[in-house]
Amino acid sequence: MRNVMMVCEYDGTAYHGWQRQPNGISIQEVLEEKLGLITREEIRLTASGRTDAGVHALNQVANFRTKSTIGCENLLKGINSLLPEDIAVKIMSDVDDAFHARYSAKSKVYVYRIFNNRVRSALYRNYSWHLRTPLDVDVMNRAAKLLEGEHDFSSFCASGGDAEDHTRTVIGSSVHTRGNFISFTIEANGFLRYMVRNITGLLADVGKRKIVPDEFKKIMCAKDRSRAGITAPPQGLFLKEVRY
User: Fold this and answer.
1) Is-catalytic flag, 52?
2) For the whole model, what pTM was predicted?
3) What's the CA gap between 149 and 151, in Å, rounded?
């Protein structure tokens, strides 16, 4: 049995997230189906992590086992010829038997994009959160820096999440602007469900000057989801990179 690693990008707009769902099409289902057609096997992918409905990926990593002798270059060409236009496999390579897309990962990087303009965008509606109120990026960045280090992120965890331990280590966190776009980038050794979107919702309140960075820190330390405000919508979120 070979262990094959793949890196893919996808537009999550039309899908019910990465993971197979009983009530809707998923990225995993599409990829497994196409790989199965090529290898004539039942393929099961293991991803670095799940992305939710409407969330995108620039570099999602997954691995699978196969008895097929088809070379990785031909696997890559074959699957991209079968995939819909909103999913593409960028890399396919044989890896050590011990490699596991999820458990071998050291950290992941997410980017959340806000379109900050008085008028909404027709072109970027599926790839950003439109906020009309001008946001103070400098104060948002000061608040984002408070996330760095090891903390209990219960205040930013979705209710009903399956993780018992809510402690994560944030390696880096920043907010920057380019034109009408504001991007929040965060790297951590792991993420809770809706964690990035919940943080972004509260950072938006900081940018609107509804709360100050000190209050942001108090909410984070409270370990109480009810204090942390709204959840940012999914379409602004991108899985940027998985580091091993």
Assistant:
1) yes
2) 0.95
3) 6
